[in-house]
Amino acid sequence: MKLIVNITSIMLLLFIASGSIEAQSLPSEKGSRPARLGKIEIVDKSVMECVYEHSNYDPFFDETRIEDWILEIGRKASRYGNYNDYLRDSIFVADYNGKPTLDEFDKVSKKVGSCSLTETLKIFNENKLNHYEGIFGDYYVYTEELPEFDWKISNETDEICGYRCRKATAEFRGRTWDAWYAEEIQISNGPLKFGGLPGLILKIEDEKKEHIFEAIQLRKSNKDFGYQLRSFRIPTDRKTFNKMMYDFRTDVVGFLGGELPAAVKPDGTTALPHRRLFYNPVEID
What we know:
The chain is of the alpha+beta class. The chain is built from five helices and 15 strands.
């Protein structure tokens, strides 16, 4: 049965999906009552953390968005997730003993900014990768083998975060990538799903520079990390999930089953309503 949504509801959904507004607690809910925090399934303890700045360009809107992400690296696994989420949880533990009130939760959340449901977990000894992500209130997970990269290493070098890095190039899922890795940091890993070089990847960009991941901070660590537990996650596979995300981000109204009348331009012709969200994925195959 097709879901019919009125115009006001559709526009509200669009604002929420695009990150224009955030859900807020009603005044009656605020105060000294404890906030309900998400639970984490611990998988390893980090020995190093690397914070990356990710610059993402969407040619449809001619717009660039920049977010910070963190790679937590352990001996058995690594996790790549949103840095604001990491900061928020760290503040809850350090300043509120992991038990903030609703007011304290709102205060910290506003301070660190918007977070993300996206997490990528690499499990080294099982040679597998779990990717966790959400689409409009539904939580998904898919598992795949750790990707293999046919890197071509060159003699070109650069300095990133104080480390001398060598350049390597490879094709990965529809894009050509240039990576700079630090041989001094003998960890074969990198942001998101990247890795497979004799050193930590400190910068990687596609040939069109629509995606640029660059390390802005490295530090030693000794902290438990894991992934967020949900009451229910929908298991899927990579291509099915990417297709759903494409459908959602490029036509959110149609994805939700709603209908909007076409807008009328001053000259009397019609124009499609605003249906598309910011979207230019890393994987385009």
